[in-house]
Each structure stands twice: as structure tokens, then as C-alpha cells.
Amino acid sequence: MIDIDDILSNFNLAFLKIANEMFEEVPMDVEVKVWDFWKSVPNLTLDMEERVWERIRNTPNFYEFLPPYASPKELKRLGSLVAQGCHEFYFITSRFPTKGRSVQLQSQRWIQKKIGEPVSVIVSSKKGELCKVLGIDYAVDDAPHHVENLLDHGINTYIMDWPYNRHIDHRLRVKNLGEFLDSVLI
């Protein structure tokens, strides 16, 4: 199972760019150290963060235009692996709806554009339960609450290493998609 935001796509950068466009005093070049942006980004208040989320919700097909986080080489490799069909890949995300196409379709279109292969995306916040039902062997995620849910359900979980999840004491950490693929593929 591969999460999308801040594994494949760079949601943090997109959020910070919008925050900076809306509020020039909010810097874009910030390391997000706490899960809640307003607790980590200088000059960003909770009210301002909520206004950024509202703008995202009202942006048609927002998820189709996110910048990639994974490198072009990693995305090409993922596309080749999907095309070969030797491994099952599940893309599970818990994104919230925006205007335009469904979250599922926006996510599928983004991934297909980046890796050159059609994929299915499942939208769910119950990643641990879902992975268990689907018989998924390995997962990679960055969100602390999803990582903990996956671990609670006995899923072999790799944490995409971000400052906001380092409080989770877990030995399986990766710095990029390539490291995850190297670790789990035989």
C-alpha cells in the first residue's frame, strides 16, 4: 500500500504555496515539523490555516495539479513495476473532497500522468483495517495517525520520514519511494 500525499505528491509544498499566496507573511520554505501546519509554520494562525483549507476545498480538481514529491526516476520505476504486474500495488489515501472530479478520480489521474500507467485508488481513513482485509503485506505512509492505525492492525509499515512523525518509535523508516520499493520488493 502506498499513500499518496508526501510520498508520491508534495502536498506540504502545495499547501505552503497557497498559504504564501494568500498571506505574504507566511513563508514557503519551511520544514513542517508538526502535523498541524499552524503549529509549525511561522506567521500562520489557526484561522489562516482554516482559510487555506477552504481555498483548497473550493479549487476544482486540486489533487490533479500537485507537484511530485517522488523523483522522476522513482515514479518511472513505479510505473514499470505496475506495468509488469508482478506485484499488486494499492494506493490508499484519505484526502478530503474538493470541487470538480471525485478524490478517487483526481488521484488516479495524477498517478497515471506521473507513472504512465492506470491505477486504482481507494479513498479511506481506515487504512489499517482495509490493508488487513486486502491482505496487504507492506505499507508506506507519513501521517502519524495512519501509521499508528496501520501498526495497530499488524501491517508491516514503513514510515516516510518527516519531522512530524519522528515521535513514533518504529525502526522501519524510509526517506523516499525508492527506499521503500528497495526494502519490500523481492
Please describe what this structure looks like.
The model has no long low-confidence stretch (mean pLDDT 96). The protein has helices spanning 11-22, 46-57, 72-84, 103-115, 127-134, 144-152, 177-184; strands at residues 91-93, 121-123, 138-141, 156-160, 173-174. The longest helix is centred in the middle third of the chain and has 13 residues, at 72-84. The strands form two sheets. A three-stranded parallel beta sheet has the order 3-4-5. It is globular. It is mainly alpha-helical and 186 residues long. The chain has seven helices and five strands.
Summary tags:
186 residues, mainly alpha, three-stranded parallel sheet, two-stranded parallel sheet, 7 helices, 5 strands
Q: What strand order characterises the main sheet?
A: 3-4-5
- 3D shape: globular
What structural category do the secondary elements indicate? mainly alpha
Low-confidence runs of at least 5 consecutive residues? none
Mean pLDDT: 96
Separation, N- and C-terminal Cα atoms = 16 Å
Secondary-structure element order, as H and E?
HHHEHEHEHEEH
Strand content: 5-15%
The number of helical segments is 7
The helical percent reads 40-55%
Main sheet makeup: 3 strands, parallel
> How many extended strands?
5
Rg (C-alpha, Å): 16 Å
Walk me through the topology.
Blueprint: H1 11-22, H2 46-57, H3 72-84, E1 91-93, H4 103-115, E2 121-123, H5 127-134, E3 138-141, H6 144-152, E4 156-160, E5 173-174, H7 177-184
Parallel strand pairs: 1-2, 3-4, 4-5
Helix pairs in contact: 1-2, 5-6
